[in-house]
Amino acid sequence: MAVSGAEPVEPRPVGIDELLERVRAGYRRIEAQEAYDAARTGEALLVDIRYAALRERDGVIPGALVVERNELEWRLDPQGSHKTPEATGHDIQVVVVCNEGYASSLAAASLHRLGLHRATDLVGGFQAWKAAGLPVTPQPPQSPPSS
């Protein structure tokens, strides 16, 4: 029962481990081979959110859409003015790939809040993909902008 004039109760702080557990409970994560098969058949869009230095160091997944984490929601929102051509609707299956499978979980949860109900992430991230022996190609170094 609420008491009139009482101070609002602040929710207790949640640590990152508990937050990850909560968001991961909201969808089914997938393993590297399943992600590979889904992407190969056109059932899923792989989205690599790693920053450029990691892509240059470790390579990229052929065919994956590269969208750095800070742009993800803007680029994948099917209703957004900054969407990528691949953002065709709320029903697409997006598999978010980060380096080790942590940031991608938070990113997938954010995509769910945008209505992308089939968004998921890759268990173990890019490192699990690479360890499974799935295709990786080198990313050419970025050229400095010309003046």
Your description of this structure?
- This protein is an alpha/beta fold and 147 residues long.
- It contains six helices and four strands; from the N terminus they run H-H-E-H-E-H-E-H-E-H.
- It has helices at 16-24, 32-40, 52-58, 72-76, 103-113, 125-131; strands at residues 45-48, 65-66, 94-97, 120-121.
- A four-stranded parallel beta sheet has the order 2-1-3-4, with helices on both faces.
- It is globular and about 60 Å long.
Quick one: biggest sheet? 4 strands, parallel
Structural class: alpha/beta
Strand content: 5-15%
Strand arrangement across the biggest beta sheet: 2-1-3-4
* Uncertain stretches: none
> Helix fraction?
25-40%
The overall average pLDDT, rounded, is 92
Helices and strands, with pairings:
Blueprint: H1 16-24, H2 32-40, E1 45-48, H3 52-58, E2 65-66, H4 72-76, E3 94-97, H5 103-113, E4 120-121, H6 125-131
Parallel strand pairs: 1-2, 1-3, 3-4
Key attributes of the depicted protein:
147 residues; alpha/beta; four-stranded parallel beta sheet; 6 helices; 33% helix; 8% strand
Brief characterization of the structure:
The chain has 147 residues and is of the alpha/beta class. It has 6 helices and 4 strands, in the order ααβαβαβαβα. The radius of gyration is 18 Å and the shape is globular.
